């Protein structure tokens, strides 16, 4: 059975099992599936493309070297993000700050110019609001909303207790809601 026939966590687990059993060439599939997310985390911490690219290579090298240690008790992506997060923390200069990396391309090809402009303005407003959050909130918000991690997965990745993570996400949402309230209803009634 080909790994391309499976989706989600089952596919990751199958690919990992096949790599560990000797099919090393399948590692490229794990890279393809997770490279963008790891690179995004690198950009969040390192703030430039070259460093983020080096970071991504370093993370995947660590993953490859330690793949036989993945026990399957958590999702593969959670295990990978934990390694990526710890690598970023260890590599980043403590004076540099983490900042959120909201998905780059919000506008779609079918959007008219006004709609594209509104989406870009909204993205910039969200980015600016997220930048104003305390770092511990930003990390939790990013992992929860943009990397689609559960509270227990975030606990495993960054080491905060689940209740602390829930509190950080709740408080961050409240702060963001207040900061972005001025934009509520903006653009409604515009051309569709």
- The number of helical segments is 8
CATH superfamily of the largest domain: RNA polymerase sigma factor, region 2, helix turn helix motif
Radius of gyration: 19 Å
* CATH fold field value of the largest domain: Rna Polymerase Sigma Factor, Chain: A
Shape: globular
For the biggest sheet, the summary is: none
Helix percent reads 55-70%
Could you report the average pLDDT, rounded to the nearest whole number?
A: 80
> Tally of extended strands?
0
Distance between the termini: 46 Å
Portion of residues in beta strands equals under 5%
The helix-strand sequence is: HHHHHHHH
Write the CATH architecture name of the largest domain. Orthogonal Bundle
- Poorly predicted ranges: 1-6, 102-107, 187-192
Provide the number of structural domains: 2
